[in-house]
Design goal:
The protein has 119 residues and is mainly α. The chain folds into two domains: 71 residues, Orthogonal Bundle (Multidrug-efflux Transporter Regulator, Chain: A, Domain 2); 48 residues. The chain is 71% helix and 5% strand. It contains five helices and two strands. A two-stranded antiparallel sheet has the order 1-2. Strand 1 and strand 2 form a beta hairpin. It starts with a helix and ends with a helix. The model has no long low-confidence stretch (mean pLDDT 90).
Amino acid sequence: MFIGEASKSSGATQRAIRLYESLGLLEISRKGMYRVYTKKNIALIKIIKEAQTLGINLSEMVILMSEQEEFDWKLVSDFLNQKYSMIENEIRELEIKKMNIKTYQVSIAMCLKELDSNP
């Protein structure tokens, strides 16, 4: 299949598919001057798109390919564990910030109440 059909099948834009190829994430065969996409290519494009929704950027994916034709799945698993830990830390930090904001809101409300009661 050609790039238009690959785009429809994968849900990625033609521009994105070309970018993935230029970064070395996709190995595409050619028929004359046309790129020819296989079902395996489409599956990989879908994996790349899904990884992006998880917050994995393209440069990280290039590293995870390890200059191979496919992802190093052990490396991917380790990377996802690290990403998960980072997100857990971010959540903890955000919860602390949330509690601090609540504390400041209560303090400010008390100050305003005192100002209103002292004419």
